[in-house]
Amino acid sequence: MRVQVRVMLSSERVIRNETLEIVLPDGATLVDLLERLPLSPTERKKYLREDGRGLKEGMAILINGENVETLGLGPDTPLEDGCRVSLIYLLAGG
After folding, report:
1. Residue 94 placed within a domain
2. pLDDT of res. 13
3. Global pTM?
4. If we measure between CA atoms, which residue out of 26, 25, 29, 28 comes closest to residue 75?
5. How many domains does the chain have?
6. Could you list the residue range(s) of the whole structural domain that residue 45 is in?
C-alpha cells in the first residue's frame, strides 16, 4: 500500500513543503511507517521517542486530518492505502 506523508517537524521541512510517498505492506501500522521515514539519525533522535513508538512531546501525528492522540488511537493504528499522514511540530506563542 502507498501512504502520503508530510513531515513538518522543523522549519526547514515546512519550507520545503514536501510530500513523501512511502510504500508499506498491507496491514502496516503507524510504527511501521515511523521506522521507514527517511530521517537522518539526528532527526530521529530529536523527533522520535526512544522506543520508536511515536513522536516526542510537543508534536502530533494526523491521519487524514485527525489527531491520533485525540482519537484515542496509538502507535499500532493500522494504516490504509492512500491515507495521508502528517507529522507536525505544535507551535505556541503569544
Report:
1. no
2. 67
3. 0.85
4. 29
5. 1
6. 2-89
> Which cell numbers hold the place of 1?
500500500
- What value does the mean pLDDT of the chain take? 87
Distance CA 36, CA 23 (A): 9
pLDDT at 15: 59
* pLDDT band with cut points at 50, 70 and 90 for residue 6: very high
Burial class (CB in 10 A: 0-12, 13-18, 19+), 29: middle
User: Which CATH number goes with the domain that contains 20?
Assistant: 3.10.20.30
Where does residue 47 rank: exposed (0-12), middle (13-18), buried (19+ CB within 10 A)? buried
Query: Taking a C-beta distance cutoff of 8 angstroms, is the pair 57, 34 a contact?
Result: no
